[in-house]
């Protein structure tokens, strides 16, 4: 499940539209002179695919074009997305038009209107790309937030702008922007498949177990910390109790447990009865009210969760049943009506005048209605899954808070029982009783720690098993295996392109996000390799190797890559060479031909599951190259037609 780009569309303020049709599953080349708009194509696609900022260059395009759009080839048909360009002083527009059908006619400008917001669009595009539930938690002690991969992260591997493909320090799209390099490192294990499909569920369970373990360990450590002070404090309290004549006070003993038992007897036997405390325990009453609120909230969340799960299940069941009914209704397309409106048999074409059948138009309308309902349910499915997941999280959180509330109520009840026997006629006795009470209250409620320790050991065993499955070491082992496979392709292609260091093994360094050659003198990263030819070549082989893995393993990313002007290192855009045509057999021409031939071989090997789009100044005089050209922007032909450009802009 993924998508490719069928068309790029521009809508002018003059009401006209400009359509650039691409071939899915093939190499698409747009060649042209400089300043014709080639570089803007990546930004147009990126803007239509949910970018929160419009980076389409200001100037002619912004003044002549009102909307931009893309038609996508998806698994179930086609999707169309158009977005209005922002006005002056604005970063983006919220006006987004979205439609999905088996086949979509490119709409006219008058049909465009806002039908979806950018958040919902990104969720739908993520679904089309096949991106499922995922999350990356940073290592313990790191203050970074958790990260969930979506379509915007997947596009880091789908674009190579002109300045990026020639850069010896940056390998991926937008890698030079703040926080992006770390995001790429965090989401690559998911996109490469180095983590399990149930990774999110396991991570959530591990987090809950760790939280529970910390609570139990804290209780155990409090108990052991008090015992660790030795017998001296308990003995001194016993001596003071004997000195003032408190009932039950005995000669101090060496055993700490015996000292605690004596102190408890002293605490439980006050010198004389006292009136019970009459004041209301405001804290306890507040906890009782909180308990009732939490129990009510727990029941409410449980009902909502069950309703959401049932609705989600019923929606999926309805979708399957409706699909079957839709297939039955579509069989009506075999019939045709005669001029008198009588249906004909699809086999002998005789009129079925004696057969009582529903009207053909009626059944076609029913089929269209069912198709619309099915798409609505499928578009909302990821949102319903997210609602169910959040409700489950709220349910667990309320249960945890209710458990903590009960423990606090138990603690206050225990404290109250002790406080009721602590009134004394003597301030001195009251003082020592207060100290004894404070000391005993500092002890954990569970004095026999054997069960607590067994529970902690069981939790530690479960956590250890999950940590092993989810450990960075396990993920790294899988990553190393994947990178080894990618290295094989990269090394082979580097030899075909005749790049420097191609005789040595090449690999992707995901820690530094670069390409490294492992030579006899040590590793050489891309930024230490000379010449722009090598930088371009290493960008190409790295991205081709990644996309080959993505396609072969069915990973959830868009099935295209857009590369802007890779031959500039050989033929700068400001140097027109024979009208852009490159003839002859010089070394630069051969290098450009090797580069494009590799792209053609890769896309043919992965066809029809992969699409390559390349814009360039070069125009090779090779039949296979010419066959891949979809548009040639020269002699006045540009991205934006001259007739669209306002007069003041032309000046």
Describe this structure in words.
This protein is an alpha/beta fold. Among the domains are: 3-126 and 637-650, Rossmann fold (3-Layer(aba) Sandwich); 232-335 and 360-466. The protein has helices at residues 40-48, 60-64, 118-129, 151-154, 162-165, 180-192, 199-227, 232-244, 256-268, 282-330, 360-419, 427-441, 450-470, 472-497, 532-552, 587-606, 623-628, 647-650, and strands at 3-12, 17-21, 27-32, 65-74, 77-84, 96-101, 159-160, 506-509, 514-519, 522-525, 560-564, 581-582, 611-616, 619-620, 629-633. The strands form four sheets. The protein has a five-stranded antiparallel sheet. A five-stranded parallel sheet has the order 7-11-13-3-15. Strand 8 (506-509) and strand 9 form a beta hairpin. Helix 8 runs antiparallel to helix 12. It is elongated and about 110 Å long. The model is unreliable at 273-281, 418-425 and 573-577 (pLDDT under 50).
**What radius of gyration results from the CA coordinates?**
36 Å
Number of strands: 15
Low-confidence stretches: 273-281, 418-425, 573-577
Biggest sheet descriptor: 5 strands, antiparallel
Report the sheet-strand fraction. 5-15%
Describe the strand arrangement of the main beta sheet, using strand numbers. Answer: 2-1-4-5-6
Helix content: 40-55%
Q: Shape from CA axes?
A: elongated
Query: How many distinct helices?
Result: 18
Q: Report the average pLDDT across residues.
A: 81
- SS class: alpha/beta
End-to-end Cα distance, whole Å, is 48 Å
């Amino acid at each position: 499940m993924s998508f490719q780009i069928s068309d790029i569309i521009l809508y002018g303020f003059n009401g006209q539209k400009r359509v650039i049709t691409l071939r899915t599953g093939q190499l698409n080349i747009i060649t042209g002179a400089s300043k014709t708009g080639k570089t803007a194509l990546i930004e147009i696609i990126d803007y239509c695919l949910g970018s929160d900022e419009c980076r389409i260059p200001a100037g002619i395009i912004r003044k002549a074009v009102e909307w931009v759009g893309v038609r996508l080839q998806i698994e179930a048909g086609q999707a169309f997305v158009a977005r209005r360009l922002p006005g002056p002083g604005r970063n983006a527009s919220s006006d987004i038009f979205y439609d999905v059908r088996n086949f979509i006619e490119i709409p006219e400008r008058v049909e465009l209107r806002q039908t979806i917001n950018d958040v919902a669009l990104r969720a739908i595009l993520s679904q089309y790309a096949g991106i499922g539930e995922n999350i990356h938690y940073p290592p313990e002690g790191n203050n970074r937030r958790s990260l969930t991969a979506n379509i915007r992260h997947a596009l880091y591997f789908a674009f190579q702008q002109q300045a990026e493909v020639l850069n010896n320090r940056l390998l991926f799209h937008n890698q030079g922007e703040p926080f992006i390099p770390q995001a790429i490192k965090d989401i690559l294990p998911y996109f490469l498949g180095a983590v399990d499909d149930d990774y999110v569920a396991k991570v959530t369970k591990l987090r809950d177990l760790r939280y529970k373990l910390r609570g139990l360990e804290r209780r155990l450590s409090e108990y052991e910390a008090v015992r660790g002070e030795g017998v001296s404090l308990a003995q001194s309290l016993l001596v003071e109790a004997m000195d003032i004549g408190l009932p039950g006070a005995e000669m101090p003993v060496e055993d700490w447990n015996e000292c605690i038992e004596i102190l408890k007897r002293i605490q439980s036997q006050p010198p004389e009865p006292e009136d019970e405390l009459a004041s209301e325990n405001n804290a306890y009453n507040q906890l009782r009210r909180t308990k009732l609120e939490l129990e009510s909230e727990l029941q409410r969340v449980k009902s909502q969760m069950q309703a959401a799960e049932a609705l989600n299940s019923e929606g999926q069941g309805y979708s399957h049943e409706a699909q079957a009914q839709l297939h039955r209704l579509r069989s009506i397309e075999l019939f045709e009506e005669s001029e008198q409106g009588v249906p004909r048999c699809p086999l002998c074409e005789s009129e079925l005048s004696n057969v009582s059948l529903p009207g053909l138009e009626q059944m076609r309308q029913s089929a269209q209605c069912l198709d619309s309902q099915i798409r609505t349910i499928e578009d909302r499915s990821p949102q319903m899954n997210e609602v169910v997941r959040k409700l489950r999280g709220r349910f667990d959180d309320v249960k945890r808070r209710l458990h903590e509330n009960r423990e606090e109520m138990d603690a206050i009840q225990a404290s109250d029982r002790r406080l009721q026997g602590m009134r004394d006629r003597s301030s001195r006795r009251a003082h020592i009783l207060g100290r004894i009470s404070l000391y005993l209250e500092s002890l954990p409620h569970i004095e026999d720690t054997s069960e607590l320790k067994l529970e902690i050991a069981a939790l530690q065993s479960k956590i250890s098993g999950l940590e092993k499955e989810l450990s960075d070491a396990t993920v790294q082992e899988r990553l190393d295996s994947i990178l080894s496979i990618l290295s094989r392709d990269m090394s082979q292609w580097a030899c075909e392109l005749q790049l420097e260091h191609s005789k040595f093994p090449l690999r992707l360094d995901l820690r530094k996000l670069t390409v490294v050659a492992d030579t006899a003198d040590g590793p050489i990263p891309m930024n230490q390799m000379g010449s722009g030819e090598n930088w371009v070549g290493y960008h190409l082989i790295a991205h081709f190797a990644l996309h080959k893995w993505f396609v072969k393993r069915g990973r959830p990313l868009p099935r295209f890559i857009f590369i802007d002007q890779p031959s500039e290192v050989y033929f700068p855009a400001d140097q027109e060479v024979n009208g852009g045509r490159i003839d002859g057999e010089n070394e630069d021409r051969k290098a450009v031909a090797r580069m494009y031939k590799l792209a053609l071989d890769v896309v043919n090997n992965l066809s029809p599951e992969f699409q390559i789009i390349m814009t360039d100044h070069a125009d090779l005089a090779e039949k296979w190259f010419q066959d891949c050209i979809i548009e040639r922007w020269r002699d006045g032909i540009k991205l934006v037609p001259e007739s669209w450009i306002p007069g003041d802009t032309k000046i």
